[in-house]
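User: Fold this; tokens only.

Assistant: Input:
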Amino acid sequence: MQGNTPFIIVLAVGAIGAALAGAYFASQSPQSRPQVTQVPNPSPPSPPSPQSPQSPQSPQSPQSPTPKPIMITPSQNNCKITTAIVSDPNPPANVRSSPEVTATNLLGTLSNGTYITVTEEQNGWFKINNPVEGWISKSITESSCSEITERINFSPKGTSARVKGRIIGGGSHEYLLKASAGQTLTLSVSEGPLPFVFIPNDPYQRTDLTGGGHYTGLEKWSGTLPTTGDYLIVLDSNFRGFTYDFVVEVK
């Protein structure tokens, strides 16, 4: 037995070593290793999709401004004057026996505002027969053409005109306006009476569309035109006269 003791010890040591080695490798088996959860790498954020550029709003086409009414005033040239009003800056006004200034031809004087009846015009002088007979300088009076006929023409692309004038004493101011059947004619009065409106080809002025013109007392009238042609817009004065101012529009 003594001779086998070292051998037994060696075997014992070998067995112990084998047991320890087995235990070590068993501890390294996959079942006993801790499981590691892999965290996925975050994918880089997708770049924002570019927004389609907003189409610029089409600019609204500017509306063409409506042309202002064209101004029409009656001519004072080459017309007959039958009535005037004395308007001397240094009253009273002198009435003379001839159309000139001399020391011996003074007949008398007239106050400002006096209506005079004119029978003749000569070289800047009026021959008068009422309230006295004689001659008076035209420059110290106010006067207007007694009878006129003017045509109303609108400006390009325009549809209206402002008509402004004055009748001193008796007389008639007439305005021709070409228009078509179905159009609407409007008169807007700011001063004076409402004009008469006579249809085309009405020489005796029997058909007035306004229903009375001056006598209606209206400041505005509008109506549909029955035919195509030259309409006659008329202002009449029998004695003192008046200033008138109105707008005529056709659409």
